[in-house]
Write a structure and sequence with these properties.
heterodimer, A: 233 residues, alpha/beta, Rossmann fold, 7-stranded parallel β-sheet, 8 helices, B: alpha/beta, 2 domains, 6-stranded mixed β-sheet
Chain lengths: 233, 276
């Protein structure tokens, strides 16, 4: 099975990019299953279901979505196995830019768009820097110059990645992405594989539902802002 | 240096092979892409822009100097081969013109960027109405000023051997001057247009129908003659537009070129000659 992990900045066109790509995978005779991980609510499952493929949704709700995602990888793989999928697409949303979903041996795709700002690639962090493929969308509505500068910024954050420009509306570029997916080495069994980047510690009383402000309500791993000292005149 | 682009035909919208199965564009040539809206003009440009290898909706294949472009690595090498200007493009970043152009110049490793930037600004102001400065913010530019800056940037900073132009007649700039600037020596230029003057400025035109390349017309002597008439008429219309824009009343002898304008035109042509 091909295990494909898709992440990206909000509204960058992750689902549109994948819908076009999945259509081409279907044309090539591949059985595709999609699992969508989100925080509170998603409509993307409806979009995926229109392709006539099995779709599962996982909502992290009160749990950190990144940790929820990692804790469910085995179950998602099993589910895809039951669906007899050749390609499993796992789309994750709600990532806070500190975590990255990339797992060694899985093809990880990061979708990012030209409109998010020229310096944003540097702020996105490991989600972008550890991706195998970076798909840049919305290139049709910005100038040639901006596209070139933006791509350069992406390259400087992740020089190893294969960078693809794609149009989420027309699907231009989707066949190249399909080929990249099919040419990526397959594997069986996600158990024992490793995350490329460790997820940050987030084990404090607020993770467990505390709402009151104040030191005496804080337990576990608590990090404080370090304020620069101000010289007194 | 690039010598030619070849487009091998695919399928039209109803799944039949395109009538034109091979279209060659040589270095230095201007090709117009014509046809009604929805006939597939922009798709043709897109296919060329991504150096299609039968993977797009049309199944067309594009050859650069007769070579196949197979791997992604090949495509990476071609990344600076083409530059595009279209009516739909905008600047979205919040930065001054000089900051942004300097950034682009760095990405393109342009030697002597200060000099080039000055020229980009001069051309921008020649193409559009109210002048902009290096300190003007990109987000403050009007549609016409934005497109003018894009044309100047594509001509001088991107300076790609292939230029794709999509309906710049709607861009609010002097499109004949823009075409002049973009068609440097040895460049391949593709112009998508509904504008007869721009169509006739091309050496040949490919006619789109139902998503496919349906025919090729070569610009005839007769058509070149009509073109020169069109250009004259347009200059007259432009002069009228300029006078009305500047708040002047029209004189009855408006069709007479005044000496000042003639001088300006000559300077412009000389400038173009040297900047390529």
């Amino acid at each position: 099975m091909q295990f494909v992990i898709v992440a990206g900045t909000p509204s960058s066109g992750k689902t549109s990019v994948m819908v076009h790509t999945i259509r081409h995978l279907q044309t090539s005779g591949q059985q595709v299953a999609v699992c969508k991980i989100d925080c509170l609510q998603t409509n993307d499952d409806v979009t995926y279901r229109r392709l006539g493929i099995p779709v599962a949704v996982g909502l992290s709700d009160y749990v950190c979505p990144d940790h929820f995602y990692v804790a469910n990888l085995e179950e998602i793989e099993q589910w895809a196995g039951v669906q007899k999928a050749d390609v499993l697409v796992l789309e994750t949303a709600g990532l806070c830019h500190r975590c990255a979903p990339a797992v060694y041996d899985c093809l990880s795709i990061c979708v990012i768009d030209n409109l998010i700002g020229i310096n944003t690639p540097r702020k996105v962090g490991p989600m972008l820097s550890s991706a195998d493929v970076v798909v840049i969308t919305k290139g049709d509505i910005v100038s040639q110059a901006e596209r070139e500068v933006f791509r350069y910024q992406v390259e400087s954050v992740n020089p190893q990645a294969r960078i693809m420009e794609m149009n989420g509306l027309t699907g231009q570029g989707a066949v190249s992405l399909k080929n990249t997916i099919l040419n990526y080495p397959q594997f069986e069994g996600i158990t024992g594989k490793r995350l490329k980047n460790p997820m940050p510690a987030a084990i404090c009383s607020y993770c467990a539902g505390e709402t009151v402000i104040g030191k005496s309500f804080q337990m576990g791993v608590v990090k404080k802002v370090e304020f620069e000292s101000v010289d007194q005149c | 240096m690039l010598k030619k682009i070849t487009i091998l035909g695919g399928l039209n919208k109803i799944g039949l092979p395109e009538k034109i199965q091979k279209l060659e564009i040589q270095a230095g040539e201007i090709l117009a892409v014509v046809g009604p809206t929805g006939s597939g003009k922009t798709q043709l440009i897109a296919d060329i822009g991504q150096v299609a290898e039968a993977e797009t909706l049309t199944g067309r294949r594009v050859r650069i100097d007769d070579g196949e472009v197979n791997s992604n690595e090949d495509k990476q090498k071609l990344r600076y081969l083409m530059a595009q200007v279209s009516q739909n493009m905008n600047f979205v970043i919040d930065m001054t013109i000089s900051e942004f152009l300097m950034m682009h110049a760095q990405v393109r490793a342009v030697p002597n960027p200060e000099m080039v930037l000055k020229e980009v600004l001069a051309i921008t102001n020649h193409l559009s109405g109210e002048p902009v400065t290096f300190e003007t913010n990109l987000t403050q530019l009007s549609g016409g000023q934005s497109r003018a800056l894009m044309v100047a940037d594509v001509a001088l900073l991107s300076n790609a051997p292939v230029v794709l132009i999509d309906e710049i007649e709607n861009a609010g700039i002097d499109r004949l001057k823009a075409l002049d600037i973009l068609t440097g020596q040895g460049k391949i230029v593709l112009v998508v247009s509904h504008d007869p003057t721009l169509m006739l400025m091309a050496d040949k035109r490919v006619v789109m129908k139902n998503g496919g390349m349906d025919g090729i017309c070569y610009t005839t002597e007769k058509e070149r003659h009509i073109l020169s008439e069109l250009v004259k008429t347009e200059k007259r219309v432009n002069r009228l537009r300029e006078q009305l824009r500047k708040g002047k009343s029209l004189r009855s002898d408006y069709h007479e070129i005044d000496h000042h304008e003639e001088e300006e035109l000559k300077l412009w042509q000389e400038y173009l000659y040297t900047c390529h």
